[in-house]
Amino acid sequence: MKKVVIVTTGGTIAMTKTHDGVVPFAGGNSLITQIPKLGDIAQIEHVEFSNVPSPYMSPSMMWHLSRLVQEIVERDDVDGVVITHGTDTLEETSYFLDLTVKTEKPIVFTAAMRNINELGTDGPRNVLSSVKVAVSDSAKGMGVMVCLNDEIHAAREVTKTYTSNVATFDSPGYGPLGIVDEDAVIFFRKPLLRMHIDVEGIEERVALVKTFTGDDGRILREVKRLGYKGVVLEGFGRGNVPPDVADVVGEVAKEIPVVLTSRCFKGRVLDVYGYKGGGADLVKRGVILGQEVSAQKARIKLMIVLGKTGDREEIRKYFETTRMRGELQI
Ligand code: ASP
């Protein structure tokens, strides 16, 4: 029988309702491993990493989780890893591990939208399905996956789309990698744009600033003064910002890397618009195009890349991986 290590970090899956609201409780994580039928699918080992709501998850915790999971997957007796996590920031931690853990073994993040004592709780079912994915031969080499509601998503593509519904995880513009259907784990496709970044440490001081209509750039300008070593700027559409922000982008980009993303959740940012504040103008001012990753994921990537290099043009290579405007497409 294959062996799966379940690493628990907390989240609603390990919470219960009290008079104060839904909160973590001691022992919540261990209940996850006591799900009936789990033992029929795999030999289970439980490792508790933390018991926190996922808004408490920090870059340093992500780094330590990544190192722990790297050690686990290097063990000969382990076939796969399932990680339980709160849904709020699951897409960030799973992407962090996708970029930093090197293995062909399946790593599957899962969670719950309904706490353990709620009618129709989804936690046990999600853990069961995730363990099925973790022991599946077809899941090898798929990178870090996210499995909830019997859908399997790529960590790089998935996002939480619904504040309350169990069908909250989706990969807009991509769709799921596959599904769990009863005992079958079925993949439709492979995630082709994955990247591994070999680092010894990360730069945690990376900010995320979202622009808005009428923005004069004062918030973005503060980022440098506050000691951040990099910033992700979430712009509009193809990767555009208001004109006053463009000047500030130029100032800030001279000192720290500025990665541009879009508030749209489908498509790439590109150097298309040449007006002041348009993507092409911002590239001339030193911006790095985040391409198709969301702002929150670009921030995760920038923290990791900064662990490797502080050179803007080197950093650019990690983000602008596909064709730029004007380059020959074959
Ligand atoms: N607020 C919770 C968390 O992310 C939500 C959840 O787990 O579904 O920890």
Detailed description of the structure:
With 330 residues, the chain is of the alpha/beta class. The chain folds into two domains: 3-187, Rossmann fold (3-Layer(aba) Sandwich), CATH 3.40.50; 206-319, Rossmann fold (3-Layer(aba) Sandwich). It contains ten helices and 16 strands. The chain has helices spanning 28-32, 38-41, 59-73, 90-100, 123-134, 218-225, 243-253, 279-284, 295-305, 312-319; strands at 3-8, 15-18, 21-24, 43-48, 80-84, 107-110, 144-148, 151-154, 159-160, 169-170, 178-181, 184-187, 206-210, 230-235, 258-262, 288-289. The strands form four sheets. It has an eight-stranded mixed β-sheet with strand order 4-1-5-6-7-8-11-12. A four-stranded parallel β-sheet has the order 13-14-15-16, with helices on both faces. Strand 11 (178-181) and strand 12 (184-187) form a beta hairpin. The longest helix has 15 residues, at 59-73. The termini are far apart. 46% of the residues are buried. The model has no long low-confidence stretch (mean pLDDT 96). Aspartic acid (ASP) binds next to loops. Aspartic acid binds at residues 11-12, 53-54, 86-88, 111, 113.
The CATH architecture assignment of the largest domain turns out to be 3-Layer(aba) Sandwich
What's the helix count?
10
Structural shape: elongated
User: Which structural class do the helices and strands define?
Assistant: alpha/beta
Low-confidence stretches at least 5 residues in length (pLDDT < 50)?
none
Kindly provide the name of the CATH class of the largest domain: Alpha Beta
Radius of gyration: 20 Å
Along the chain, the helix and strand elements come as EEEHHEHEHEHEEEEEEEHEHEHEHH
Major beta-sheet overview: 8 strands, mixed
The total of beta strands comes to 16
The proportion of strand residues reads: 15-25%
What is the total number of structural domains?
A: 2
The largest sheet has its strands arranged as 4-1-5-6-7-8-11-12
Mean pLDDT: 96
CATH superfamily of the largest domain: L-asparaginase, N-terminal domain
Amount of helix: 25-40%
| Ligand catalogue | aspartic acid
Distance between the termini: 47 Å
CATH topology of the largest domain: Rossmann fold
